Amino acid sequence: MNKYMIYLNGKRCIGCHGCEVHCKANKNLPVGPQLCEIDHSVMVKIKSVPKTEFTFRSCYHCEEPFCAPICPTNAMIKREDGIVYIDQEKCIGCMACAGACPWTIPQLNPETGKAVKCDYCMDRVDAGLRPACVTKCTTHALKFVIMQEVV
Amino acid sequence: MTKSVYSICGMCTVRCPIRVETENNKVTWIEGNQHLIGGALCAKGSAGPAMIADKERPQQPLIRDGARGSGRWKPVSWPTAYDYIADKLKKIKSEYGPESVVLSSRGGPWQGMYKSFIHAFGSPNYTNHDSTCGRNTHHSSLSLNGVGRKGFVYDIKNAKHLVLFGRNMFSSLRIAENLQTLDMLDNGGKLTYVDVRQTITGLKSTRFFQVRPGTDYALALGMIHEIIRREAYDSDFIDRYVTGFDELCYFVEQYTPAWAAKECGVREKAIKNFVDEVLEDMPKVIFHPGWNLSRYKDSFYAARALHILNILMGNIEQKGGLIIPKGPGDCGKKGINAIDIPKPDIKRGDGVGWKYKHFDKGPGLGHLFFPTMESEDPYPIKAWISMRNDPFSCMPDPKRQEQYFDKCDLLVSIDVHYSEFGWFSDIILPECTYLERDNGICVQKGPKPRFGRRQKALEPENDSKPSWEIFKNLADRLGMEDYFPFNSIEEYWKWQLEPTGYSVKDFEEKGFISLSDEVVMYDPEKLDGQFNTPSGKIEILSQKLDKAGLPSLKEYVSPLRPPKGMFRLVYGRSAVHTHGHTVNNPLLNELMPKNSLWINVKAANKLGIVHGDLVDVTSEDESYTGTVEANVVDYIHSEAVYMVHGFGREISRQTRCLHAGISDQKLMVNKLDDWDQAGGAINLCEVFVIVRRSVRNPKRRVEL
């Protein structure tokens, strides 16, 4: 079972798109790829106040990811704790992963010519820190959740 | 080697506290200061390092090598640049007198040095951007409370109800304030939001008044009427500290909630229900008096009305209300040394202090230098030094401004970026980015005051200099070296901290020096002496306004409705941009490369405009047109169109944002003279524009 997930508290989210830039700045990504995104629904009036729902999406880190087996160089790896990541040494930038993913999550980094995707900032997680988007969320709306099986 | 430094962000002028990690002079991590804002940072904050890498910024001093605005530049060395400016300033001083030089800055905690520079030079003419921002709010508070806009901080966290009139705080992003507001909401607090359109802030509100543009004053008067009618105000507070209350009661009698509802286009019952709510929660109710209120012809009075609502709540120096900011003295500590050279005893060139006596003399009013440039009365204006201030971006009608500025013999721009003014100027001095420069120590007043410090995290990438060094070098060349008694930032910091007993080492642990562990509060029953008005009380009838021949309680005048085919132009900001400063930042430009024109769905239907269509937006006199995509939305008043400020730039070296989107200030043709005689600010929203579906929408495809 996946150990982690990122949860968005929609009540605190102000749609400032900070997380998207926190991610890019941390991964040193050029203009182009965007590994997480904030979206919102069409406004509807609730108790005479127009409201919208914010959603956050990065990678779903599927239990059985389609992107991993299709990789010709075995660069797409699912770790024990559930994190699906790309071994940048092995990646050849063929983007077969993006084709296999139902949401086209992996993207090409035009600077390196290799695929990139959200890996929950696993270097930070392994150092006992939280992903960049969560750590720096402008309103502390994003949470990095360690999941527990409820018996 | 990894280095970690605490500093102060500079992507916008909120100046959030940050911590930066670097390795080999590159930023590897940047976050909000954990001790103050729990690591939080906004998109702009994270895009700071991208700005450093951006080569579309001035990389060494540039002297104009063609006509003004032609965009032809010659790179020069710093000594050459300093000599160029110093020689010109000396010549201007001897021919026209020192007062013919104006220095404008962006304001903020480090303005003392810039102000002192121009004072030491012999000119009283220091100014800033505030006549297009907070001047009306500032002057309204001064006339009423005797203290300016910064004379109160808002204890939102402990409030039960926050009322915001057009203050779109979740797009302006003062992170600490935003966190407080969300905490308040999490604790069951209420947020009432008033605007002509629904915004991110309005989304979080518990009550939303969508008002007709320009009717804020009417809504506030209706609220005052209802609270007074119910006699539900804090009468003890009013008896003790307020004068002119009876006149207020008499004045608001005509402004019933029914009248206000009709005028604003809201429901009377909603106003009455709102009043029920605030009366239940008082005094923990905050009516935010507004931030950028250089908007309508009566914004000054709207801000006064909002302050009056606070007075009715009796919320001053109450938990969850308006708190008087405390300084080092309130904590039994000594303040820092600051460079503060008094203003020369010469009439200001903008008329503030002698022609206009009711305005704060501090920064004066920037736009009032233009008539003086034209008339040369009381004296000519021959040079303008712009320190990170961009008159062309913040004030209306840059074409008209060009004609005025062209009368000057010297235009200097000191900035991190190319500004629209800088592009027209004679010389650009590149300041290093906030991550590459040290600034003086500043006092951060508040319920828990502290000393803050911006400290460089990196060595400058370009041949750029910090502002202290620029002013120091210019001062040395102008024979003013005695006024700036330091040669390095370390010396400057040491001198600043001398009286305090602290040393720069004390910043290392947390990035700031806390002057009090506890919130410092005055006794709310002993506030005498806090209101610096002529009478020492909160003056609903202001003696100062009276002397200037202005009413304290102004009759409401309904705003004009735009003629057919025209709309009132309303501007604002987005959470990912700091006006024109960031629109060329690679990462922020990627998020929002251009602005759009928000237009009400019914109004758009009438004009045959559908969402995504290109529309031509034309100034009232039809001399300027810009074309953008229409953002057709439900929740904007049908009289208004809205755009994010800062776009439509025309600096060819900024390729990402060149001609992207449209500029509101270029649509404000002939609006430089439309300003508020009582509040001093420019009426930036008293502007109508024509909107048409653009001929640039292709009808069919004709190319291969």
Give a short summary of the structure.
The complex is a heterodimer of chains A (151) and B (704). Chain A is α+β, with helices and mostly antiparallel strands.
Number of domains of chain A: 1
Give the integer mean of the pLDDT values of chain B.
Answer: 96
- Spell the H/E element sequence of chain A: EHEEEEHEEHEEHHE
Whole-number radius of gyration of chain A? 16 Å
Task: Please give a handful of descriptors for the protein shown.
heterodimer; A: 151 residues; alpha+beta; Alpha-Beta Plaits; two-stranded antiparallel sheet; 5 helices; 10 strands; 19% helix; globular; B: 704 residues; alpha/beta; Rossmann fold; Dimethylsulfoxide Reductase, domain 2; six-stranded mixed β-barrel; 29% helix; 18% strand
Structure commentary:
The complex is a heterodimer of chains A (151) and B (704). With 151 residues, chain A is an alpha+beta fold. Chain A is built from 5 helices and 10 strands, in the order E-H-E-E-E-E-H-E-E-H-E-E-H-H-E. Chain A has helices at 18-27, 67-70, 96-100, 122-126, 132-135; strands at residues 4-8, 37-40, 44-46, 49-51, 54-57, 76-78, 84-86, 107-109, 114-116, 142-146. In chain A, strand 8 (107-109) and strand 9 form a beta hairpin. Chain A is globular. Chain A starts with a strand and ends in a 5-residue tail after the last strand. In chain A, 40% of the residues are buried. Helix content of chain B is 29%, strand content 18%. In chain B, the strands form 7 sheets. Chain B has a 7-stranded mixed sheet. The model of chain B has no long low-confidence stretch (mean pLDDT 96). The interface between A and B is large, with 28 and 46 residues.
